[in-house]
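Quick question, first post here. What does this chain look like in 3D?
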Amino acid sequence: MSSIEVDDPSRAGGEPGRADGASIKPCFARQPILDRDGMLCGYELKLHCVNEAPAGETTDGTDAPGHTVPDDVTAAAAAAAAEGEPRVAVQPTFTQSVVTALMHSGVRGALAGHLAHLDVNREMLFDEALELLPAERFLFELQPDIEVDDELVARIVVLHARRYRFVLDAVVVPSDTFARLLPYAERVKIDLPHISRALLPKLSTVLKSAGKLLIAQGIEAQEDFETALNLGFDKFQGYYFARAQTATLRKVSAPRHALLNLLQLLAGDPTVAQLEAELKLNPVLVMHLMKLANSSGLAVGHKVTTLREAINATGTNRIARWTQLLLYADGRKVALEDDPLLQLAATRARFMELAVLRLPKAGRDEADAAFLTGVFSFVDAVFGGSIENTLNVLTLSKPIQAAILRREGVLGLLLSVVDALERGEWKEIESVCVELTPLTVREVAELGLVAAAWAGVADRSAEAKGLERIED
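> Answer (accepted):
Ran it through. Tokens below.
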């Protein structure tokens, strides 16, 4: 299985299909976009494609499912057959394949109700299949090197009239392309690491005066976020919120020592009486646990009214996972799906749990270790200081600590691959997958969406297919 990296879709050429009959299978990673309050408000979907052979064939000779053809293409072929015409296989265009993948419930679930930014190239813009995407859910990003002529401008005007919105992406310096497209763009994304710091204040002032919404791209450090914030930027893309330097700016929803003490107790297989005694010392945790026990149908048949009932109804394993993720919950009253650090930690942990089960001889113990590795890989962003000391306090096993600190072992490889997925580094994913056979690049992307959907769903039923809402 070969891969085509299409972070810039124009590099894929928008080819409708390969001459050998192989079809293009799009897959996606997502990168968070935050508002001025540091809450999630959207995701950029990073597109990647793999080539797959027709049904029953693959490039490596193994069986594989065929490509999913959009309903309108299937219907056209069926109509032709009904009229007595020879039935031929219709290969979908590149855009049709992308749109079909985007409309899949896995992608919708991973967006958790937030807006999606999608890079589009010239050929995609002219393909009517693009208009199957709901205008209220997707924004189209235009690259700096897109070929602009009167025909393209006319097409953008048509799409704009149909309520599609556009973003000028990766702006470093104003150009002729920038000037021609700016009137039709709702948002402008500035590449902060690469723009001249002398140009940045003037450009941002001019764009704000023109009524454009500004997005700072590539924010990885707190100081870059503060620079963009002071210049009036509206939204921010990057992982600065998951870095240790933000620890002083982030509150946790229960005292740090209370959460750590509870986690230490849970690691030792406590009795209900021990858990009850520890929780009673922390009213905030009691409140959370009572809400957890009474949500999602855990207390079947009656409302939980005592702490002991809440512990029994919830179970120690579930309490442990809830406490682990509670470490990342913002101290403000924030909806689960809007809290970027909690979403990132929960998605990473769930991904690792699912991914390890795709590997040979992995069972429940390995899945639990993988979840712990993922969930605690960001612990320094909350507590600051030495991550080694925090991991020791949590009494995590040596393989888990080795994975987090040095990327060692299978857990370390899984941590590396999910980190690459978060950054949309497809070549790095492909390289790591060589050591994680039979896990493939496409499976990594699919599991990433499944994990994101799990993390983004609150108030689920007793089957615990999603996280419960955490509120103060």
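Residues 336-455 form one domain.
Residues 222 and 246 are 7 Å apart (CA to CA).
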